[in-house]
Amino acid sequence: MSQIEFTQAYSRLEKLLFSFAYHLTSNEEDAQDLLQETAYKAFKYRNMYQPHTNLRAWLMTIMRNTFINNYRQKKRRQVLNDSSGNNYLLDAGSHTVRNTGESDVAVREITAIIDGLEDWLKAPFLMHYQGFKYEEIATELDIPLGTVKSRIFFARKKLQEAVQHRYQAPGLPELLN
């Protein structure tokens, strides 16, 4: 296919391609940019198009892949849109600061609750929490497998009750009934 034939075929499909670009981007300016990028790639790689095949599908595939690549690239950059009148793009960067104050307090409180468990419940529970399998715990503590499972169950139940008691707002049980 010659350059002129390719250009004519492309121009016949341009409105259809724009509507597809608008469908992907939901923004007229972004759709225009996507259409322009697709046209650039189509003309640059027109020698890869095989004549007498579906040109529309080939162009739409280029457009879809370009859109996906641009989306992934924007997501990687973590670019935020500034709401000021100039619409500057700000780079959010990859460094975020997290406030771990609340979670540190919660971990300390839960650790204190676990430390308050009876030893016969605490030992199997902590081993299970550390990643030991039930069979390994049974072997290590020299108790039956069913006993290990029930002790871990009872430890979880006691922890759940203690956490609910500690963090439940006054008067909440009446609201739940």
- CATH class value of the largest domain: Mainly Alpha
As for the CATH topology of the largest domain, it is Rna Polymerase Sigma Factor, Chain: A
Largest beta-sheet characterization: 2 strands, antiparallel
CATH architecture of the largest domain: Orthogonal Bundle
* Poorly predicted tracts of residues: none
Overall number of structural domains: 2
How does this model look, in words?
With 177 residues, the chain is mainly alpha-helical. The chain has two domains: 3-91, Orthogonal Bundle (Rna Polymerase Sigma Factor, Chain: A), CATH 1.10.1740; 101-166, Winged helix-like DNA-binding domain superfamily/Winged helix DNA-binding domain (Arc Repressor Mutant, subunit A), CATH 1.10.10.10. 71% of the residues lie in helices and 3% in strands. The protein has helices at residues 3-25, 28-44, 55-77, 101-115, 119-129, 134-141, 145-167, 172-176, and strands spanning 79-81, 89-91. A two-stranded antiparallel sheet has the order 1-2. Strand 1 and strand 2 form a beta hairpin. Helix 1 packs across helix 3 (55-77), helix 5 crosses helix 7 and helix 6 (134-141) packs across helix 7. The termini are far apart. The mean pLDDT is 82.
